[in-house]
Amino acid sequence: MRPVSALLLLLPAIGLKAQAVSEIGITGGVTYYIGDLNPYAHYPARTKPAGGLMFRYNFDTRYAIRAQALYGVLEAYDSDSPDSLQLARNLSFRASLFELAVLGEVNFFNYRGLGKDGRSWTPFVFAGICYFRASPRAELNGTWYDLQPLGTEGQGSIEVPGAAKPYSVDQVGIPFGFGLKFNFGGHVDLQLEWGMRRTFTDHIDDVSGTYADPDLINPLAAELADRSADRDVTDRTGQARGDAQTRDWYQYTGLTLSYVLTKFTECDLLYFQKRR
């Protein structure tokens, strides 16, 4: 028998064991940021709506991979803080957030499986990698300005001694979290998730290092860099503006409604149970 003919005969059998459940869905929830302007608070006053699309590929009843696109807003104001130093600093930012993520998922139970251990719901955990873009902006006299091109801490300036390079608004992060999945006995699934994003940037908020000499940077940058009430009488050059030793984080809490495009056959489910 020719190899090609043998392969064609094997494909139906392989399909019974390898067919996977695929889903498409929409997600909606809220997102918030943790960093220099919001060091500790979860679900702060500036928590904002977010939403997006997802595609999930279930290898079996336990393991899946998910691709997801999210859009939201990250925002924080020193004026919301009870800390007197933050109130005096008086900085703020807003950034539109766009994220593309690939996430691996592990279900705790035999989700949508057969037999007495088959469950129509399951807790799960996830982790993966994401690309995100968050370009901070700030408002001054009714106008919003992009902060990264201004170099508010002297980034990219040949006049400022030891100036850092301009930071990038395109970054990579590590999403991880947990949630619950529910199947309504057919093609509809509902998922609740809580997930953090560990980033490798300290500039989601444009606040990281020290105050630059206001006479050596763009006047608009200098005004946006120091929003304190006494900025005209106090020279803060070289003083800490943020904590350069920490990195910024952001979070997404959401509900996802998905539609199952393909379903495991009974042969698939029996195979998965025997394999365990």
How is this structure best described in words?
The protein has helices at 3-18, 84-89, 219-225, 266-275, and strands at residues 21-34, 48-58, 63-77, 92-107, 110-111, 118-119, 121-140, 143-146, 170-183, 188-199, 249-260. By secondary structure, it is mostly beta strands. It has an eight-stranded antiparallel beta barrel with strand order 1-2-3-4-7-9-10-11. Strands 5-6 form a two-stranded parallel ribbon. The longest helix is centred in the N-terminal third of the chain and has 16 residues, at 3-18. The two termini are 34 Å apart.
Strand and helix layout:
Layout: H1 3-18, E1 21-34, E2 48-58, E3 63-77, H2 84-89, E4 92-107, E5 110-111, E6 118-119, E7 121-140, E8 143-146, E9 170-183, E10 188-199, H3 219-225, E11 249-260, H4 266-275
Parallel strand pairs: 5-6
Antiparallel strand pairs: 1-2, 1-11, 2-3, 3-4, 4-7, 7-8, 7-9, 9-10, 10-11
- Supply the helix-strand structural class: mainly beta
The main β sheet shows up as: 8 strands, antiparallel, barrel
Q: How many DSSP E strands?
A: 11
What is the strand content? Answer: 35-45%
Concise overview:
Helices cover 14% and strands 44% of the residues. It has helices at 3-18, 84-89, 219-225, 266-275, and strands at residues 21-34, 48-58, 63-77, 92-107, 110-111, 118-119, 121-140, 143-146, 170-183, 188-199, 249-260.
